[in-house]
Design a protein that fits this description.
Length: 262
């Protein structure tokens, strides 16, 4: 027990030291104002204490709602740690995607209440996608506003996979068709529409991997078909620029919906 306590104190000391120094080195712990606040540190300590993560390194990405860091699990293997902003969160846009979701009751507008639900929503969506066989980061653990996921990238060198938009795709036509199949499978097997799909929310690891699924809605959502059209339109627009002679988005959406109704 004493050894565990010493390890716990050492981790806290290390996190605090890194927070204070705010180093710019990519291999060091990076703190973005409003992300690593005291309540979030307590949440991280819980994950550290139960062995989900043992170390937190540099930021992989920074977004409007969260930052993703590379962490290490108890075995020293890389994991992705997504920390959703709470104190500086802009939550208005979230309400459109969570109110009306049968999985969430009594949705409150206050960020302290909404953000943990938003994190839970992404966790649940990742589970649905993963169980349907769609390439997404495998969800590992969740505590309040911190989601721990599979690290997508070069595990040997701890390098994150690039975004699709930053990749030279060997076969744009093949990749476009694969993404459309993933969208269709998401709709028909996982019962979800990504609702924010674009070249900015797809990683490339030899094949496309969907990320940032917090906005994904159940197909029963009143705007599901509208979001589906937007997703297909975004993907079609991007791949058209790469020379792909894509089908009209409306035709693709109609096909996906019809398959889902069978």
């Amino acid at each position: 027990m004493k050894r565990a306590d010493e390890k716990y104190e050492r981790i806290i000391s290390e996190l605090d030291r890194r927070k204070q120094k705010r180093r710019k080195d990519d291999d060091e712990f990076k703190v973005v104002e409003g992300v690593i606040d005291p309540p979030t540190l307590k949440t991280l300590y819980k994950l550290l204490n139960r062995g989900t993560i043992r170390t937190l390194h540099g930021a992989i990405s920074a977004g409007k709602e969260a930052n993703v860091y590379r962490g290490e699990n108890a075995d020293g293997k890389s994991v992705a740690v997504k920390i959703y902003r709470v104190s500086t969160a802009e939550t208005d846009f979230m309400l459109e995607y969570i109110i009306g979701d049968s999985r969430f009751k009594n949705v409150k507008r206050r960020s302290r209440s909404l953000i943990p639900q938003w994190a839970t929503k992404e966790y649940k969506n990742l589970i649905r996608y993963h169980e349907a066989g769609i390439r997404v980061p495998r969800p590992i653990d969740l505590e309040r506003n911190v989601l721990v996921m599979e690290f997508i990238g070069d595990l040997k060198n701890n390098l994150p996979a690039p975004l699709l938009k930053n990749t030279t795709i060997p076969s744009p036509v093949k990749t476009f068709n694969e993404i459309i199949r993933m969208v269709e499978k998401g709709y028909t097997k996982a019962g979800l529409v990504h609702a924010d799909l674009s070249e900015y929310n797809i990683l490339w690891l030899g094949k496309p991997v969907f990320i940032d699924v917090s906005q994904a809605v159940l197909i029963s959502h009143e705007y599901a078909e509208k979001y589906l059209f937007r997703d297909i339109q975004n993907i079609t627009s991007y791949f058209t620029k790469l020379g792909v002679d894509a089908e009209n988005p409306e035709v693709i959406v109609k096909h996906i919906v019809s398959v889902g109704e069978k």
